Amino acid sequence: MTDDLTALHVPAQVIPPPNSLSPQARAFLNGAAKRIAAASAAAQPAGGSSDQKDEAAAALQILRPMASRFQGTAETIDLPHGAKLYRMTPAKREGRRAEVVYFDIHGGGFTAGGGEMCQVLAKLRAADYGVVVYAVDYRLAPEHPYPAALDDVMAAYKAILAQHSASTLIVGGSSAGGNLAAALMMRARDEGLPRPIALLLLTPGLDMTRSGDTYLTNRYLDVNLYGGAVGGPSSYAGGADPKQPYLSPIYGEIDKAWPPTILTSGTRDLLLSDTVRMHRAIRRAGVNAELHVTEAGPHGGFMGTAPEDHEVMGECRRFMYAAWGIQA
């Protein structure tokens, strides 16, 4: 327990969306505030702390029609223990795009985001980037706690390396997927495997001890993880030591061979501290790293509804194309 004399006592206050945001971003935050207030009045969990599977199902209703426009081939590769690796190949790949690949590790609090959602996101990214995209459908908690998900990600990574050179590969993950992507970099190093040419860590959760400042300061500001969203990460960690690097990569060693990394977050993101601390750790190792923080952005941003989201994804695309040597 923090000494009461050394802790700040913050008075209650009302925090509206800032006027500096786009109308779409303000509308997103306003809508989320109404949803949270209604849930509180009904004594029910607010959206950010509700069942991740319900939220994924709702998002799928929006994303499914978009993914249906994907033109190309979809393949499924069986991995050990029932995990799957999806390969999405766009119908048109020209020049350098025909040679490079992207490995996507989905988020969902370690408890959701697999199955159709994993495939849909892979199709959207393949269509957007114009390259082959692999996506791993890893085992989920609480039925499969640590290290099941990381074992599946590692098996997928080895399967990709059997078909492609690491010099053509970029790895990315969001939220829980960001945790697994960073842990993969450490485990690949420890097992003597080559690492990719670049890494994307999008609003990553990297500290299972939840010691970062924004776990408190943004606990009731992050409308997407409102209240702290402890359940999923805790069910994944199980009884394992939360400080071990494969579970909390923020405590692992970042070496000079770590791939150049782009990290994204928002000023209202519960996991902003994780992202900022990881950026500093990578920079201290002498590795190129970019940090992009969106004004008033909650965890995961505004769910693709606002120009602020499109701007961040444009930065990611620029970063990736530069690593691949592709003209935008």
Q: What string gives the helices and strands in order?
A: HHEEEHEHEHEHHEHEH
Largest sheet: 8 strands, mixed
Give the overall average pLDDT.
94
Can you tell me the overall shape?
globular
**Termini separation:** 52 Å
Describe the protein in words.
The protein is an alpha/beta fold and 328 residues long. It has 9 helices and 8 strands. A hairpin with a 5-residue loop joins strand 1 (72-78) and strand 2 (84-90). The relative contact order is 0.13. The model has no long low-confidence stretch (mean pLDDT 94).
Descriptors:
8 strands, 15% strand, single chain, 9 helices, 8-stranded mixed sheet, alpha/beta, globular, 328 residues
Topology, pairings included?
Layout: H1 23-41, H2 52-67, E1 72-78, E2 84-90, E3 101-105, H3 116-129, E4 132-137, H4 148-161, E5 169-174, H5 176-190, E6 198-202, H6 214-217, H7 231-237, E7 261-266, H8 272-284, E8 289-294, H9 307-324
Parallel strand pairs: 3-4, 3-5, 5-6, 6-7, 7-8
Antiparallel strand pairs: 1-2, 2-4
Helix pairs in contact: 2-3, 4-5
Describe the structure concisely:
The chain has 328 residues and is α/β, with parallel strands linked by helices.
